[in-house]
Amino acid sequence: MSNRESLIPLKMLLFSFHGANTIIISFLPLYLQFKGLDGKEIGWVLAIGPMAAIISQPFWGYMSDKYQTVKRIVIICLICLMVGSYIFLQMTTVPLLLMMAVVFFFFAAPVGALGDSLSQRRADELGISFGTIRMWGSIGFATSSLAVGELLSMVGIEYMIWPYLFLAGLALAVCFWLKDVKINAKPIQFKDLRRLTKNKPFIIFLFLIMFITTTHRANDSFIGIYIDQLGGTESLIGVSWFVGVASEALVFAFAGYWFRKLHPLVFIIIAGLLYSIRWFAYGFIEDPMFIVAFQFLHGLTFGVFYLSAFQYVTRLIPKVLQSTGHLVFVSMFFGVSGIIGSLIGGSLIDTMGGGFLYLSMGGIALVGSIGITIYHVLPFGK
């Protein structure tokens, strides 16, 4: 098998896992509503995901670096998330749902990040763009959002577990053909993690990007509610997700043509400013169709931002701590930012409305963009 052919299982892993993940992101709230939970109870269950990610992602990243394998850690997590998801989705009472949600998300949260970490390493090894591999996750997300949405509209939301298990099982199956990447001959020790905590550029960078990533995660949580407030339908919400993730896939696909032209921080600043413009535009919009039209900016915001930030983090951290550093970054992006975005966003949309929420997000993203610009001109932001 050639080096390029050896990427096929990795691309299939990204496609199938992100396809499964979109089922949880897009349809779990409706499934919990079908189970009889009210909005507040659903919010508690959904908050478990980013809370678990804060712990599980750095933990599994450390285990990956310690035992010098991404492949085996991903296999363990996928087996456990399949068992955990089946039990989780059978629960009917809130305490049991919360307890099993912790178990499920503990194993589910690291898989995407570990897949991205392996993709970055394989891309560096082959001298190709990370985006050309990562785009298969976006394609899986977009495809699943349409196909599973149509399927569940025909058979009912109560059967959500079966397409999820099918895609998660496919992800597990292709893992056995993955080519692993070993960076160092000497396994890391727990004391080596101090190299990350003492890495000031890394810590400052994570703090500054939270101003932008928090707005991204708030949009993930509330764009559906905002479209509904503007008079949009559930099908329009699905289309908005598809348009956004399809544009993201295109940005990843063509990353090899644009990505290395400028410093990663320049792309992060550009993406941050586009985030700000995007949120301000959403705040003034009164027709939900315009939200869908502006969703093409998702690729130019999240796609450019995530790709550039992931690459920059790879520069900042030593090779022996690649998986740990990558998963700390992802846990900040999707975990800490997810909790802050959900709590603050939920309060603002309830009290002030969706328009005010998005105008506030535009201001916060602008502050983050200015902060990263200052960081870039300082000596350690090179």
TrEMBL record:
Please give the superkingdom of this protein's source: Bacteria
Q: Which residues form the Major facilitator superfamily associated domain?
A: 8-358
Q: How does it sit in the membrane?
A: Multi-pass membrane protein
**Matches recorded under InterPro entries:** HcaT-like, MFS_assoc_dom, MFS_trans_sf
SUPFAM superfamilies referenced in this protein's UniProt entry, alphabetically: MFS general substrate transporter
Q: Where are the transmembrane segments?
A: 12-32, 44-63, 70-89, 95-114, 135-155, 161-178, 199-216, 236-258, 265-285, 291-313, 325-349, 355-378
| A Pfam family that the UniProt record links to this protein | MFS_1_like
Q: Where in the cell is it found?
A: Cell inner membrane
Q: Which UniProt keywords apply?
A: Cell inner membrane, Cell membrane, Membrane, Transmembrane, Transmembrane helix, Transport
Query: Keyword Zinc: yes or no?
Result: no
State where it is primarily located.
membrane
Q: What is this protein called?
A: PPP family 3-phenylpropionic acid transporter
Q: Which organism is it from?
A: Aquibacillus albus
